[in-house]
Structure formats: structure tokens, C-alpha cells
Amino acid sequence: MLNLNRISTNSFFKGDIFMDDIINNFFCYLRDEKELSNNTLDSYLRDIEQFNEYIKKYSSLDLLNVNKTIVITYLMYLQKNGMATSTISRKLASLRSFYQYLLNKGIIKEDPTLNLHSPRQDKKMPEILTQKEVDLLLSQPETNSFKGVRDKAMLEVLYATGIRVSELIALDIDDINFEVGYIVLDKDTSNERAVPIGNTALSCLRLYNEEYRYKALKDDEELALFINYHGKRLTRQGFWKIIKYYTSKTNINKRITPHTLRHSFAVHLLQNGADLKSVQEMLGHSDISTTQMYSFATSDKKLREVYKKTHPRA
Predict the structure, then answer these.
(1) Backbone φ and ψ of 196, nearest 5°
(2) I need a labelling partner for 115 at 20 to 30 A (CA). Which of 38, 210, 216, 237 fits?
(3) Does 249 fall in a domain?
(4) What is the pTM for the complete model shown?
């Protein structure tokens, strides 16, 4: 194990340059100039030392003379041995930082990690609730108090529109068009969009707005649609607590976050025949490829339905 305290950054060019000295000085650079945490420092050094062990074992070169081919071969070696893509990406990031440091110090002339890309990580499908699970979650608030009516309205709006939590808590009272049935997001910006809202969510909003919201207001000039007991705009953290509370009452064995209802909204629309372009517009995705991940969650269900309808022995 290296003695990370015995070399100072000022001693870098004194006498012969030893590999331990180089790594020690790199450590000092990360600690003193980059101010990285101890855990991150440990990861960087461990990644570099593991790469050093690899090139000692599989090549005749050292850390200062490796080329791009050796780095690529090392990444392939890690992948072949079953290392997670995220871990390989972190190791490459550590090496890239190390060789950029050496290049800037004039110790090497070429960076062997230049233009190397981290392996692509497979996107995990987000947790999705079934329709029954959504109904169960949305039925938890008791609609006989300010809190219950407000919470019910928020959950219903989130699932009915698929908007982000940040968009939900940013809503002002005049962002809701009760007559036509839609909400306006990102008002007065280039990203402004109108999202339709269903009758159930609209009814919950009306009840909240007409009979409960004004009772909690402390300032008539407050524009926030969803407010707390102090009459102020509800915070993101406040809504996290709300959804965590109702989730605990459902006994649904899934990790439910505020974003779960957004994911479920998209998948349920596609499962029931909505086109991808419309879902993209409602979600506010600038690139349809982001929306396409939800189509994978619908494919299994559609295949089963096709099988049942068409196979003679189904």
C-alpha cells in the first residue's frame, strides 16, 4: 500500500521519478486542488493501481508508456470478467483523469485515453404500477380534510397528466383551465405546452380549489396552486413525504417515487393504443427516443394479447 503522506506536490521533479511518487502526487492534486472526498480518492487510486497491476502482468510496459490499444484491451478484459458497465465507466474516468494530469505536467506526450468512450449502459426500465396499483394508491387520501383533499388532487393530477413533480409544485392557480380541462406548463417560455387533464383529476382539483385551498391561504396574493398548512407553495421535499406516506399504507411491493406515476402514465397510455408522438408531446420530451423506452414495457402485453387472439390452442 502506498504511503500517501510521504510525498508533497513540490517534490514531483526532485531526483528520479518513481511510479509511487507519481501516484502520490496525483493523489495530492486530487485532494488539495480538486478537493475530492476520501471515498472518491480511494476509488481513483484503487482504479489506477488495478490498471498498473494489469499492465505489469500482461505487457512489458509501465503506466507512463501505455498506448490506447492497451487501455482498450484492459476495458475488454474487465467486461469479459463480468464487471458492471457502470464500474468500467468509472475506472475509465479515473484513468482519463490520471493521464490528463500527467499530460498537463509534461510527463507524457500523449493521452492514451483520448477519445475513448465509456461502454454504453443499458437503460433500466423504470418501475411501473399496474392500473390496480394506481387505483389503490390514489384511493388512500381521505377526502374530508384540507390535507386529504389536496393530496388526492396532487396524486390524481400527476397520474392524469404525467407531468414532472417539479412542474406539479410549480403550478399556479391560473395555470388550470377548468372549463376546457387542461393545464399550462412552462408559461411564457419557448417550452410552453398545454396538457389535457381528465375529469377525475379535474373534479378533485375543483373540490380542493373551491372548498379547501382558500381556508389555508394566509396571503390573498399567493398564486401557488398547491400550498402547505402555512399557506406557502408546497416544496418538492414536502411532496416526497406525501407519496412516501401513502405508499406505506398500500403494501405495494415496489419502490414508488413521485416519478413512478409519470412512468405509469406513459406506459398505460401506450398500452391502451396511444401513439408515441402524442405521448412524447404530453411528457414534454424534446427527443422521441426518450419516450421510446416506454414502448418496451408494452411489447410483452401486446404479444400476449396477440397470442391469445390468434393461436388456436391459446
Answers:
(1) -65, 150
(2) 38
(3) yes
(4) 0.58
